[in-house]
Amino acid sequence: MKLIDSHCHVHFNAYRDDMDDVIRRTLDKGVFMITVGTQKDTSAAGLKVAEEYEGLWATVGLHPNHTVEQTFWDNDELAPEEQATPKIKTRSEDFDYDFYKQLASHPKCVGIGETGLDWYRIPEDADLEQVKEKQHRIVRAQFDLATEMNLPVVIHCRDAYEEQADLVKEYLDAGKLPAGGVVHCFTGTKEEAMRFVALGFYISFSGIVTFPARSKERNKDGLSPLQEAAQAVPLDHLLVETDSPYLTPEPHRGERNEPWHVVRVAEKIAELRGIPLQEVVDHTVVNTRKVFNI
Ligand SMILES: [Zn+2]
Ligand SMILES: [Zn+2]
């Protein structure tokens, strides 16, 4: 085994026609996977797929984008006919603690999430305070479940790193979240990353780290703030992921992402840090095994 994609959605609709091929292709290349749930259907489905393969595990949880009615579609996630009614607002799911607890007791369930605060994708007509309050409530419920089940949390956070870190700290200070967690698809700054590291959390980088810095955010070495973060996070707190089918790394941008592309993320981090690829591979594999207890 060479690498672990610590966060993908290989059971989503984007792979409906060739999921088995994609998983086997990935395993053949020596890449293990953790496939992540985002609401009831995808959480249950991920476990079913994980049952079928060695080297594939799943997490269950309710993504913040699924906690509010939205007009954006994601046909990569569920087929149009599985969505409530195409072209109108998505369902908003509330967190059903007992339902997820049942799923979480599955032997192939290795974490709770993705869950977190996302202030980026909020519908324009929504009451902002109400949306934030609901997201907070639902994240707390999942942190409680992770505590009860002694599982790590997979945090999805956008434009809310400070509040997210405050919430993690509150739980840790109360002796909760004993298994810690991961901030997945990190897109913040070095300072924001180090705050989670100080709390004992892992930082997972996706293909975004391979994207060239935009001109206005470039530092003197031509790097983005995210790439600076990828240089700064200690090797023993570093994870890599694809978030497939999204966020295809360079040089494959524009194609559907597949979990074995995770090697591109590891290569980029090795290049940024000026260390051998193998060092990034070894550390991220050890870290992923440790946090997900696999
Ligand atoms: Zn996410
Ligand atoms: Zn994801």
From TrEMBL:
Q: Where does a divalent metal cation 2 bind?
A: H156, H184
Which residues are recorded as binding a divalent metal cation 1? H7, H9, E114, D243
Annotated Gene Ontology cellular components are: cytosol
Q: Which Pfam families has this protein been placed in? A: TatD_DNase
Which InterPro entries does the annotation name?
Answer: DNase_TatD-rel_CS, Metal_Hydrolase, TatD-like
Record-linked CDD domains: TatD_DNAse
Q: Which Gene3D superfamilies does the UniProt entry name for this protein?
A: Metal-dependent hydrolases
Picking any one GO molecular function of the record gives:
hydrolase activity, acting on ester bonds
Which UniProt keywords are given for this protein, alphabetically ordered? Answer: Hydrolase, Metal-binding
Give the domain of life.
Bacteria
PANTHER family named among the record's database cross-references: D-AMINOACYL-TRNA DEACYLASE (PTHR46124)
What's this protein's name?
A: Hydrolase TatD
Lineage from the top down?
Bacteria, Candidatus Uhriibacteriota
